[in-house]
């Protein structure tokens, strides 16, 4: 009896000890998370942080814990260990280009006719008002500068600590993505060039660079690179640092309680021009994230509804807005490579998000239709990537399996567009 009591006491003590440790860890995690938000919160018009006064976002911690690749899938991924995507959706702090050439904010009620034509397409007058975004001419010039200018400073400011904000010798800046593994840099890079292939200009310009303390570009920050424990000769991505950005809340038609964004939505006629232009960009974003299987944006919010019923009322992960209303798709490292690897975990959410949209840009639809018809997505993306990036062979390209997944998703998106046409084409 005495022995049993001692054993019971010992087990009880151990249980209490574990509970205490768990409590300390939880409190520390909350404090750490809030400290990071305080340091890196996105600025909004009027000053202050867009996160101030909001409750603790439990989805960020819980969601990140689910990003690890299952063991069975790791073994199937070309022998490469699949590190979890640890993107902190509250930590992105992109500021940058000071481009005043973008169009002024679009306000006022719609006065130019129906926002939708031919059943499922945004009207031409809306397409004409949509700003050019990051044009190819701008991107090409930026890449040339980014590959040659000396980097004189590296500091936090682009999300997780493994990414750094770089200052060039001329004072301009870029976000350097080192990546937990090469797949993340590869995913970010190929996602950028897929957007170019589709004519989607919402992603900041990107260029690859190879770390080397002996090169003129990296020599001035050699000590900082050593402190970050970045491997010599590693390929990193540089993306243009964009200033004056604020968070973006999911529009009402795309929230869980809505019937979706479709041509029969009577509210469209009552939207302002600015609201319609934003919805047009959202329709591109959803189609694009479906193709790349990027789970670290709207899909992660949809998943988080299980424990956070108000997640859609807060800023969307990795999506920002310029003062002129242009949406900027940032931190796309979860797309393609990593997104395809964990596809089984997220596919039902990808399908749910895609099914919520039945209005599309004609230009995007035409590009998708062409890639579906020619079935050469792999070749065309590879050629664009290799023609644009001198370091493409160092970083590598999609595996045969993942190239097949991408073409399959092109085909599925095309079929979804046809389904919408059949359903709403007579409106």
Record the SSE blueprint:
Blueprint: H1 2-40, H2 58-65, H3 71-75, E1 116-117, E2 121-122, H4 124-129, H5 136-148, E3 151-155, E4 163-168, E5 173-177, H6 182-198, E6 206-210, H7 222-228, E7 235-240, E8 246-249, H8 273-292, H9 298-304, E9 315-321, E10 327-329, H10 337-341, H11 343-355, H12 362-374, H13 377-388, H14 392-395, H15 400-424
Antiparallel strand pairs: 1-2, 3-4, 4-5, 5-7, 6-7, 8-9, 9-10
Helix pairs in contact: 6-13, 8-11, 8-15, 9-11, 12-15
Kindly describe this structure.
41% of the residues are buried. It is globular and about 65 Å long. With 427 residues, the protein is α+β, with helices and mostly antiparallel strands. About 21% of the residues have low confidence. Helix 6 crosses helix 13 and helix 9 crosses helix 11. A hairpin with a 5-residue loop joins strand 9 and strand 10. Strands 3-4-5-7-6 form a 5-stranded antiparallel beta sheet, sandwiched between helices. A 3-stranded antiparallel beta sheet has the order 8-9-10.
How large is the share of residues in beta strands?
A: 5-15%
What gap, in angstroms, lies between the N and C termini? Answer: 81 Å
Major sheet: 5 strands, antiparallel
How is the largest sheet built, in terms of strand order?
3-4-5-7-6
Kindly state the mean pLDDT as a whole number?
A: 79
* Radius of gyration, CA atoms, in whole angstroms: 23 Å
Helix content: 40-55%
Order of helices and strands: HHHEEHHEEEHEHEEHHEEHHHHHH
Structural class: alpha+beta
Question: Helical stretch count?
Answer: 15
The total count of strands amounts to 10
Low-confidence stretches: 17-105
Query: Could you say which overall geometry the principal axes of the C-alpha atoms support?
Result: globular
């Amino acid at each position: 009896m005495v022995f049993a009591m001692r054993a019971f006491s010992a087990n009880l003590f151990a249980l209490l000890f574990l509970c205490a440790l768990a409590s300390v860890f939880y409190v520390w995690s909350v404090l750490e998370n809030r400290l990071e938000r305080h340091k890196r919160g996105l600025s909004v018009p009027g000053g202050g942080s867009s996160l101030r006064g909001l409750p603790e976002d439990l989805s960020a911690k819980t969601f990140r814990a689910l990003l690890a690749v299952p063991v069975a899938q790791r073994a199937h991924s070309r022998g490469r260990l699949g590190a979890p995507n640890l993107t902190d959706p509250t930590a992105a702090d992109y500021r940058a280009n000071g481009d005043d050439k973008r169009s002024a904010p679009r306000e006022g009620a719609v006065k130019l006719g129906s926002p939708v034509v031919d059943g499922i397409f945004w009207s031409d007058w809306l397409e004409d008002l949509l700003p050019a975004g990051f044009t190819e001419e701008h991107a090409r010039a930026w890449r040339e500068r980014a590959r040659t200018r000396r980097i004189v400073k590296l500091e936090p400011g682009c999300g997780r600590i493994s990414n750094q904000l770089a200052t060039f010798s001329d004072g301009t800046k870029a976000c350097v993505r080192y990546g937990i593994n090469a797949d993340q840099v590869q995913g970010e890079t190929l996602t950028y060039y897929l957007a170019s292939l589709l004519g989607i200009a919402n992603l900041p310009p990107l260029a690859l660079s190879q770390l080397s303390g002996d090169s003129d570009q990296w020599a001035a920050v050699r000590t900082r690179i050593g402190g970050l424990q970045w491997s010599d000769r590693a390929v990193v991505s540089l993306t243009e640092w964009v200033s004056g950005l604020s968070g973006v809340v999911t529009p009402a038609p795309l929230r869980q309680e809505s019937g979706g964004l479709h041509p029969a939505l009577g509210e469209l006629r009552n939207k302002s021009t600015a609201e319609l232009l934003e919805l047009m960009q959202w329709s591109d974003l959803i189609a694009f994230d479906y193709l790349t299987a990027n789970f670290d944006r709207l899909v992660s919010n949809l998943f988080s509804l299980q424990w956070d019923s108000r997640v859609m009322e807060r800023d969307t992960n990795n999506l920002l807005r310029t003062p002129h209303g242009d949406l900027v798709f940032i931190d796309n490292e979860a797309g393609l490579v990593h997104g395809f690897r964990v596809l089984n975990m997220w596919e039902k959410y990808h399908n749910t998000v895609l099914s919520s949209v039945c209005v599309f840009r004609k230009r995007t639809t035409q590009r998708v239709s062409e890639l579906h018809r020619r079935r050469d997505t792999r070749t065309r993306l590879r050629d664009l990537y290799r023609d644009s990036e001198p370091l493409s062979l160092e970083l590598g390209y999609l595996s045969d399996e993942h190239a097949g997944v991408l073409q399959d998703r092109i085909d599925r998106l095309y079929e979804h567009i046809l389904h919408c046409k059949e359903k709403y084409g007579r409106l």
